[in-house]
Design goal:
Strand content: under 5%
Shape: elongated
Low-confidence stretches: 69-95, 700-706
Radius of gyration: 36 Å
Mean pLDDT: 83
Largest sheet: 5 strands, mixed
Distance between the termini: 110 Å
Number of strands: 5
Structural class: mainly alpha
Helix content: 55-70%
Length: 772
């Protein structure tokens, strides 16, 4: 301290000012670094600046008193009293009293004391905040709210009538608030479900009264009510957190924007203020990226995104929603959330790998601009699109460690487990997703998982709940058909699917799915002609919807029924060639060309040269990162079929086993066939695994769109084939069992298939006579 005082004492006034300015800069930088990394109350930095400004005149006065305007220290042998007589002292006059008060020691100690008081005050505030004491205490610390408690954000109100601006403000606030680790913002799909339960339309405005009623129905204890008012060319934004039960105001914040260009920043300030009051750590808030970064810098892009969300989630206007998302991206190409939403919707609609890959690749590249929740979801979707399920699983599990109730993460992780053959783990994840949010998709998957576990009574109860709670959820009616089929009640499934097809009279995606499912049910029962008619209709509907790649997949569906059920090789290839003439592969993006499915068809038809050609084109034209998705292993099916046709049975079994990494259930019937050619007993074990499964993955054609096999082409032929294998091994009990199951399944099969049914019936009767 003495050395520092001595050094300052010998400097001139202007040097002292320079030193003070540098010290101020260092202090402000330290405050900024601490604030950004550990979090400080918002008033600390301004207070530090005020203290530094107060210190400036003190430093100036001290320098003036101690040094004078010309500066310089007293030189040896020359003091104030040594000036010649009659010559004025060049220093400014000072008094002994002034010199005693304005000393460098006092100035330094005073500055340190002021900042010590600031530090102590800050520490006391933080302790009170985290302990829930006094007005500084947060709502979480006081026990008013639980950590990660659900919060419903009502639509911002705009007295001036600017509905689009209010909608954009609502969406921006939801996005920013969703970054907080202390609250769980109710997402749009759950909010839409709550509105439907209230007897309202999913796209109804969520006014304060509606929000509170929806929150009460959903067991949500807090609601955010927002308002945006015009003030000249600018805007005043307010947000109030109120208790659902009695409307008591728990917290409120206000922010202003000079014009529309500042609205996003104002919403960011509004959200961060509310997050701080609720109980998010100050460090977390300081480190959180701004809303402009996690969402978009363009208010117009945000408005378009908001309209897209409403069209897709609430209005079931997917095509319009996709167009709006693309328009939002045109406005701001760095809008990561729009890219992610675009990829998700394209994937859900089966709109081709190329478009899905483009959007998810862009979202992944921009993932650091996303809130944590969306960033991990994007990483998981990206890895899934590349077939990297282990990495996708890590991303989902990391997100669930942060927040165990993220429905999409639980749901998608459940799908991974289901495709891997772990039905029990899938069910548990689906149940957790349903508990996290009352979303029809989650209840659908819970019901489907119960079916897969063979717990049909529970599945029936959950299906009734699904239909009652979400009467417009089309997949629920489809699932009822699948459950009946899984039980073996094909007459009930057939009757129900007829009703379902009639309900979907227009040529939209729902009708296509219903007709596909009816075709699959008919093919499973050996009613080939009827099945082909249904599948042809579904194929043509795909082309009407502007989906040429799915049209070609539909042509392959027709061929697979002809080949695997009826044994009509020439007709199968003819129909595929006609489809390729109508929709040439060269007109499609390479990622959308169904090379693998075509290779399977040609291998089954015995044209191995064309099968190898399509598989080779797949390997040459599709980069490794474009071969992924849920069907990342489907090329192993093609390799397996080629090896099977060549008589390389062990190799074929190995390929089908590798295909099972993508979908265990889907691979079993072909793997069983290949194994049985080498070791009948090994083939039987795999067949029994297949025959006793009841997953929805077995049903339909593209009810599961990623794999070429299912009951529709495998069940009847497998019963027939393995009844014969059991028969050859002398296991007459099991032979009789599967002959009987085959006869029952195909009792109403087409006339051309009846000789096979008759042969099985006759052998069954002979066995029954033999074993008494």
């Amino acid at each position: 301290m003495k050395n520092l005082v001595r050094e300052v004492h010998r400097r001139s006034l202007w040097q002292v000012l320079g030193i003070y300015a540098a010290a101020c800069w260092i202090v402000l930088q330290v405050v900024d670094v601490i604030g950004n990394n550990f979090g400080l109350p918002e008033w600390v930095a301004p207070t530090a600046l005020v203290l530094l400004l107060i210190g400036l005149p003190v430093v100036l006065a001290t320098a003036f008193v101690q040094e004078g305007m010309t500066g310089g220290s007293e030189r040896e042998g020359t003091g104030a009293n040594d000036a010649p007589e009659g010559v004025a002292n060049s220093r400014a006059p000072s008094t002994p009293g002034g010199r005693g008060v304005f000393t460098w020691r006092n100035a330094l100690l005073g500055g340190l004391a002021a900042f010590a008081v600031l530090g102590i005050g800050t520490a006391i505030f933080i302790v009170m905040r985290t302990a829930g004491v006094g007005p500084a205490g947060t709502l979480v610390a006081k026990g008013v709210m639980e950590e990660r408690e659900a919060v419903l954000v009502a639509d911002f109100q705009s007295p001036s009538g600017d509905v689009e601006l209010a909608g954009a403000a609502t969406e921006a606030f939801r996005i920013d608030l969703s970054q907080s680790p202390v609250v769980s913002v109710v997402d749009r799909s759950r909010l839409a479900d709550l509105l439907v339960r209230m007897g309202r339309s999913a796209d109804d405005e969520v006014t304060p009264d509606v929000a509170r009623e929806a929150a009460q129905r959903g067991g949500i204890n807090a609601v955010v009510l927002g308002q945006i008012d015009a003030a000249g060319r600018g805007f005043v934004l307010t947000a109030r957190l109120v208790a659902t039960a009695d409307g008591e105001e728990l917290a409120s914040r206000r922010a202003t924007a000079a014009d529309s260009s500042e609205v996003i920043q104002a919403i960011d300030d509004l959200s961060q203020g509310l997050r701080e009051r609720i109980g998010e750590s100050l460090g977390s808030i300081a480190r959180a990226p701004s809303l402009e970064r996690v969402a978009t810098r363009s208010l117009r892009a945000l408005r378009l995104y908001t309209q897209a969300e409403n069209a897709i989630v609430n209005l079931d206007e997917t095509e319009r929603g996709l167009a709006l998302l693309e328009a939002a991206i045109d406005e701001d190409s760095t809008f990561a959330m729009a890219w992610r939403k675009l990829g998700t919707v394209r994937g859900n609609q089966g709109l081709g790998r190329s478009g899905v890959k483009e959007a998810l690749d862009q979202a992944y590249a921009l993932r650091d601009r996303l809130p944590d929740r969306d960033r991990y979801l994007t990483e998981a979707q990206y890895h899934t699109s590349r077939g990297e399920r282990d990495r996708a699983t890590i991303a989902y599990e990391t997100l669930l460690e942060i927040d165990p109730a993220v429905g999409p993460a639980l749901n998608n992780l459940g799908i991974i487990k289901e495709l891997s053959g772990d039905a029990e783990a899938a069910f548990e994840l689906y149940e957790r997703a349903w508990a996290s949010a009352s979303d029809g998709l989650y209840l659908y998957h819970v019901t489907r998982a119960l079916q897969g576990l063979g717990r049909f009574d529970e599945a029936d109860a959950r299906l009734s709940e699904l239909r009652e709670t979400f009467p417009d959820y089309a997949a629920g009616a489809h699932l009822g058909v699948v459950i009946s089929a899984a039980r073996g009640d094909y007459a009930m499934a057939d009757s129900a699917i007829d009703v379902l097809v009639a309900e979907h009279g227009s040529s939209d995606a729902r009708r296509t799915d219903a007709v596909l499912l009816r075709g699959g049910i008919r093919a499973t029962r050996g009613r080939v002609a009827d099945a082909l008619e249904q599948l042809a209709e579904a194929r043509d509907l795909e082309l009407e919807r502007g989906l040429p790649a799915r049209y070609l997949l539909g042509a392959c569906d027709l061929a697979l029924v002809r080949l695997m059920v009826a044994g009509h090789g020439a007709e199968a290839l003819s129909s595929v060639e006609d489809a390729l003439d109508r929709v040439p592969l060269e007109g499609l993006d390479p990622l959308d060309r169904p090379y693998v499915r075509l290779a399977i068809v040609y291998a089954l038809a015995g044209d191995l040269e064309r099968a190898r050609e399509y598989l080779s084109r797949f390997e040459d034209e599709i980069p490794p990162d474009g071969r992924g998705g849920w069907n990342f292993s489907d090329h192993f099916f093609a390799r397996g079929e080629i090896a099977l046709a060549e008589g390389q049975y062990e190799e074929a079994a190995r390929y089908f086993d590798q295909a099972g990494a993508g979908c265990r259930t889907c691979a079993l019937p072909r793997q069983a066939l290949a194994e049985a050619m080498v070791d009948p007993q090994a083939g039987i074990e795999i067949f029994e695994d297949f025959a006793t499964r009841t997953e929805a993955l077995r049903m339909g054609t593209r009810t599961n769109p990623w794999f070429p096999y299912g009951d529709w082409v495998s069940l009847g032929p497998s019963y027939e084939r393995f009844a014969g294998v059991y028969d050859e091994l002398g296991d007459l009990q099991n032979a009789a069992k599967y002959y009987a199951m085959f006869v029952e399944l195909w009792q109403d099969a087409d006339e051309e298939l009846q000789p096979r049914v008759l042969a099985a019936q006759q052998r069954l009767e002979a066995i029954l006579q033999e074993i008494g």
